[in-house]
Amino acid sequence: MNISLFSFIAFTLLVGIYTWYKLRNSKFETASGYFLGGRTLGAGLIAISMLLTNISTEHLVGMNGSSYKNGFVVMAWEVTSAIALVIGALYFVPRYLKMGLTTIPQYLELRFDKSTHTIVNLLLLVSFVITLLPVVLYTGALNMETLFDVSDKLNISRNQSLIWLIIAIGVLGSVYAIFGGLKAIAYSDAIYGVGLFVGGLLIPVIALWNIGDSNIVKGLEKVYDAAPEKFNSIGDKDSVLPFGTLFTGLVINQIYFWCMNQVIVQRALGASNLKEAQKGFLLMGVFKILMPIIIVLPGVIGYFYFRDSLYNEQDTIYPNLVKKVLPVSFVGFFAAVVLGTVLSTLNAVLNSAATLFSLGVYKRQINPNASEKKVVQVGKWTSILIAIFAMVAAPLVGKAPEGLYQLLQQLNGIFFIPIASILIGGFFIRSISATGAKVAIFTGLLFYILTSFVFQVDIHFVHVWGIEFVLNILVMLAVSAIYKNKNPYTPTHTGEVNITPWKYAKPAGLTLVVITILVYILLS
Questions:
Q1: How distant, in Å, are the alpha carbons of 19, 417, 483 from that of 269?
Q2: Which of 206, 284, 374, 406 lies in the 20 to 30 Å Cα band around 195?
């Protein structure tokens, strides 16, 4: 067994043993215990688990591949997240915890009606199967194949290797989600999170050290001199992410993803109190401002090393860079960390899918009298089925012309913007009715599919998000003028957790907003 493979297996086993040890006496027979970790999560676990749920190989592989071609312009996906996290910490999370929500669509039943709740639950489940999970599994398999040359070692084709790796990763990731629930995910994320920062920072640091002849600053200067245009964060109108998109569809996407996305917000819903949830969200904002060092800069460094030689294989740039700069003994460790990011995202999505179906569909619509133990069992079977569907779909996503990360964002728009529209409309416009919300969901879906995948529309897809959002709001207002809102819902405190806010939440949030603006000024 070579040393890289040994370090890979050793670190993976370490995480598994640590997680088992922390949970050895835990029982997961109640819905709160299984889906929300018993509402006991602190700020550190919330932030790290959010980070690992968000950052996976679609970022390490996909975003570094995109920055290899397009430079720092793609950092907008990350850095602007900090502002959305501030909004989430100060506005949305206090309301979610006040209402005692288990799922975000649960709010839609309170605000609109049961059918709106069910429609959104089902749309989210479909989105997991056809967008996020297949891309995560494929990029994870691609990374393992490139790092370990699995196809050569097993004497099989590259496509066969990717399929077997997708199955292996899918099965391994499902174990955490199915047998340990949210708390198992959070504890495994704590170890993988440390590994991600250590390993992720090692890549650009060692590369710049080597390029600069033992001087990191000189190395960065050489990389800059080789391609100064790649350090500009302000995208032109014809770039992969024009700067104007930050003020149209991107702001809607970021608010939805960080403030309304069940997979992310479920960590805050499991907080022990509002203070811990707010601190977790704001700490995550700090992480997002720093993340371009790990998931954008390496791609630009990759251009310094490989130039245009991998231009048509941009999603292999990151694993190739890892192999080039890391000592052999570290490759296995970092591969284990990368696998951990895949497993974290995979099991987090499966846990959220189980929560959405078992509590939002099965318990609400199919079997209202189901015991908590039965609900947990249904959740586990839901995770198994979705994992299988995702493994079947994963091999189909490998031919994205603009790279896998860009493909993921385009597909996400099918579901995210309609759901964001009715959630934002529900929170801020009291006159919107359940009928208006349901019509807007399907209007938005049809509009985005037609403009993005059927007709040739010469508008960037993120601008289309912004147009769709405005259209959805107008549709809701028009329909609600005819079919009036008959549900004057006012949130009340259920007493699930203490909702006293963190006294430094507003100053910390303002600081993050200022730093985000300064980062753009520095890299403009």
A1: 21, 22, 33
A2: 406
